[in-house]
Amino acid sequence: NKQVIFKDYISGFPKESDMAITCDENMKLKVPAGSKDIVVKNLYLSCDPYMRLLMKTNSGSVWNPYTPGSTIIGVGIAKVVDSGHPDFRQGDLVLGKTGWEEYSVLKSTQGLFKIQHATDVPLSYYMGILGMPGLTAYAGFYDVCSPKKGEFVFVSAASGAVGQLVGQFAKLMGCFVVGSAGTQEKVELLKKLGFDDAFNYKEEPDLNAALKRCFPEGIDIYFENVGGKMLDAVLLHMRVHGRIAVCGMISQYNLAQPEGVHNLMTIVYKRVRIQGFFVADYHPRYSEFLDFILPYIREGKVKYVEDIVEGLENGPAALVGLFSGRNVGKQIVVVAKE
Ligand code: NDP
Fold it and tell me: Mean pLDDT over residues 131-158, rounded?
């Protein structure tokens, strides 16, 4: 059983060498009699920014940090090989927390969804548009941002797993939407996805000027994925009664000290509402979300860009690549085909 092991807690940017590929020769593919364990064969693994937060002891996250010497844990799509649990049977496809390894023993079914796979959509979509990032974009935009037709929407990390959907949802709502991303290729991609405009924040470090150009009348909604300097600049452009949905702050995850944000008085002057949210709170609305999104996918009204790498051994590079913007779209690792 090939595995990706987390070596030890880190500071700074994560590196491939913070993880090691090993093999566990003692893996048993049968569940012992009387146990409720589920043995799964992992098919797809998701690379997500929050995983970096689990690589330090003071993660500040709601999840426990990784244990040095143990398998990396993340969200995956897997096929049940053997099950002692009455709700799961051999051959079922499941979506939930699993190990970065070929086969895993799942001891808890908390947050484990049985995938009723519609064969007209790729199974890998359950890692992105039909999975955690999709639900995040749905909850964050429709629930937290309280959007209205005609409003001005800005999305950072806009070409990523979550951002590309937020922008498309904003267009469906009849908003004006602009995204920021780290390469020209991503900027072009955003325009193809229907964003009204996009800019490369690496080539245009004067964020204030970029935002002024894109939003001469200001921003009603900021979907926050990156934090730091971007948040500071955006605050100066918020309109009265603007909303900021704080989804994440990836620019801060590798810093020992978070960057200071200076323009906070805007919150008072412009009566801005800033609200953080967490996708796990929305799990009870997962089936409602699937009913919402599947018709849009089938009608071609919402598109989804994936960045798929083959092979468990390429997982560490894919994961650390999130922090240099190597991924274009949702980063997925294929471990095995069905
Ligand atoms: P992405 O697919 O967007 O991948 C991360 C992207 O972030 C990179 O491709 C890169 O794109 C950008 N990035 C990396 N470092 C920086 C930096 N220093 N400054 C600015 N941009 C950077 O990831 P997701 O869509 O999965 O996640 C987006 C955000 O949403 C993250 O903050 C994540 O933690 C958060 N999240 C929160 C959830 C919740 O429940 N609240 C659930 C899921 C995600 P580029 O080339 O454009 O720089």
Answer: 98
In angstroms, the CA 62 to CA 310 distance is: 30
Domain 132-280 in this protein, CATH class: alpha beta
In the block, tokens 């390894």 appear at 101
The finding on whether 133 has its CB within 6 A of some atom of ligand 1 is: yes
Helix (H) or strand (E) holding 83: strand 73-83
Has residue 190 got a pLDDT over 70?
A: yes
* Nearest-angstrom CA–CA distance, 94 and 127: 11
Whole-model pTM: value is 0.96
Give start and end residues of each alpha helix (H) in the chain. 50-53, 132-138, 163-172, 184-192, 207-214, 229-235, 266-269, 286-298, 315-321
Nearest ligand 1 atom, CA 276? 41
Name the residue with the closest Cα to ligand 1, atom 11.
325
Sequence spans of domains, the chain:
2-128+305-334, 132-280
Quote the CATH superfamily of domain 2-128+305-334.
Medium-chain alcohol dehydrogenases, catalytic domain (3.90.180.10)
Indicate which residue's Cα is closest to atom 32 of ligand 1: 248
d(CA 234, CA 293): 29
Place of tokens 């920021």: 180
Report the candidate in 61, 328, 89, 57 with the shortest Cα–Cα distance to residue 188.
328
Q: Whose CA is nearest to atom 24 of ligand 1?
A: 161
What number is the average pLDDT over the span 194-223?
A: 97
- Give the pairing type, strands 38-46 and 73-83: antiparallel
Given the DSSP bridges, would you call strands 219-224 and 330-334 parallel, antiparallel or unpaired? unpaired
Does residue 181's CB lie within 6 angstroms of at least one atom of ligand 1? yes
